[in-house]
């Protein structure tokens, strides 16, 4: 018998996982997914508060992608414009059931590719030192430590990737 997790089967067929640009059709699934991810991290997802930008993704992000399996969001990543030359990596989350399979790298690579296509010269990100796996992924993808670039009180790691 298959185990089910939030409607997502643990019997994974890689051909059924799609990385697609965000559409409002996925808003409810994205919100449910983000709520789950935040809860797993001990944080609250506040779409009516500090995370209100999720209510208008097309205006809040230069690009935003969802990883979809069986019409359910299992991953996300966004690029937010900082200025004409620099962007910020945002909302890189992956359902815990799908970690360690290369999907995090796939999401990150898509964000990097998108930023380059949009003409950005560099990508910044902020994170927390406790997220060791994410930090390793960023470092393997060419991100290097940099100075604090924002006022996020929760972040203690700041990184930058130069785009060619």
Which features would summarize this protein structure in a list?
7-stranded mixed sheet; about 30% strand; 9 strands; disordered N terminus; 4 helices; Aminopeptidase; alpha+beta; about 160 residues; globular
SSE string: EEEHHEEEHEHEE
CATH architecture: 3-Layer(aba) Sandwich
Q: How many individual domains?
A: 1
First-to-last CA distance: 49 Å
Could you name the CATH homologous superfamily?
A: Gcn5-related N-acetyltransferase (GNAT)
Estimate percent helicity.
25-40%
Number of helices: 4
Spatial order of strands in the largest sheet: 3-4-5-6-7-9-8
Mean pLDDT: 91
Strand content: 25-35%
* CATH class designation: Alpha Beta
Shape: globular
User: Which structural class do you get from the secondary structure elements?
Assistant: alpha+beta
State the total count of DSSP E strands.
9
User: What's the gyration radius in Å?
Assistant: 15 Å
Low-confidence blocks of residues: 1-12
Any idea of the CATH topology? Answer: Aminopeptidase
Major beta-sheet overview: 7 strands, mixed
Topology overview:
Elements: E1 4-5, E2 8-9, E3 17-21, H1 27-40, H2 57-60, E4 63-69, E5 72-81, E6 86-94, H3 103-117, E7 122-127, H4 132-140, E8 144-145, E9 157-162
What would a concise description of this structure say?
26% of the residues lie in helices and 30% in strands. The protein is α+β, with helices and mostly antiparallel strands and 164 residues long.
